[in-house]
User: Fold this.
Amino acid sequence: MDWKKLYEERKCTADEAVKLIKPEDKVVFAHAVAEPPALVEAMIKNADSYKDVEVCHMVTLGKGEYSKAEYKGRFNFNGWFCSPSTRDSISEGHGDFTPVFFHEVPSYIRKGLFPVDVFLVMVSPPDDHGFCCVGVSSDYTMQAAKTAKIVLAEVNDQVPVVYGDTFIHVSEIDRFVETSHPLPELGLPKIGDIEQAIGRHCATLIEDGSTLQLGIGAIPDAVLHSLKDKKNLGIHSEMISDGVVELFEAGVITCSEKGLDPGKMVVTFLMGTKRLYDFANKNPMVEMRTVDYVNHPCVVAECTKMVSINACLAVDFMGQVVSDSIGTRQFSGVGGQVDFVRGTAMSKDGLGKAIIAMPSVAKKKDGTLISKIVPFIEQGAAVTTSRNDVDYIVTEYGIAEMKGKTLKQRARNLINIAHPDFREELKVEFKNRFNAEF
Ligand code: COA
Assistant:
């Protein structure tokens, strides 16, 4: 096959490419940094030519314009995760949200539970053999590219070539739109006193030689800053960001003691700054695999001394963890949190730990502080990690163990790591809730 000829024949402008999208098509965007901005912009520009096109994806770093009320009926947004730019569409009622464990997204696509008519992705230019690299996101990208009736690719020469399940042949792509622009970047998290204290507590749970998973949000990345004295840490994580590069350069991450995929940092997507993307480029140590491998609890269970570190929004007295909604407002999604919480619990070496870390308080819009440890979860909120799955909860005030603990013991452990300003009122709630002294 002359892939160069095919590539030339299928090369077009973004406006031409998005004309292949038909009314009522299910259009899936590649995940996070792999979303192709020129194609998405062209869809917005040509919005008047569409009718009831469903747009689906997980995290977006883009503007999410298709999810705005003004495009209702042209585009209908259905998030598999919710990001700052798409959140309002769900609470305003014109967008919708589908709960799903991240590791199941490829199988949902295969089974037709998540149909894909058109898949939009950003890739590297083809290599000498005609393979484009998805670079920053293998997760559901590889399955969506296989299942889609039409694949539209933005070919950006700044996409890194990352090894693993990341290559799509030119013959499997229907249109190529050439661009050259820096990838979207996720700013570095702010590491203040609270984040440092949380990091120090988490560090006490992490032994030398542990394999780490780091979730989304500021806290997991902040924890990395407290691990500078550890030795031979490994990475088996749905995502990584810049903190991992720093620890690798400090000689802390070596992956040498990993039981599964030794010598490799196994990830399913990258989200950070150019420093991270440059680090991953043609780096034999970075192995990007699809999310049904990386996040599958049975695969996580194979990892040795596995520690997962994820964040949350609130925890109730029983240890029910709310990570993706604030009351009825859909805030993010379950992502891979439960995949890793369950995988660590199933660890074959019996050493897995699942940490959920959060600051003890949050600031509401009006500036008032609220405790994130609460007697009851807010009406309408969804439980992300159940009380049966929860393991360690960490705040800047310490660590609360949950596994094997009774309801009262859990509540006591949690109140002891709540913000001191809220402990007395939480103790009163304890009495009311359990009809017992604290
Ligand atoms: N009640 C009301 N508001 C709250 C709150 C609560 N209990 N807890 C936090 N908030 C507010 C914060 O004040 C902040 O408001 P602001 O944006 O106006 O400053 C906002 O909610 C976000 O909180 P923050 O702690 O800064 O979020 P984050 O960016 O660190 O992300 C999660 C934290 C929990 C949302 C994120 O980790 C997540 O989506 N987790 C679920 C998925 C997951 O864990 N995946 C793992 C693998 S990817």
In short: The chain has two domains: 3-179, 193-434. The CA atoms of residues 14 and 39 lie 5 Å apart. The first helix runs from residue 3 to 10. The chain has a mean pLDDT of 97.
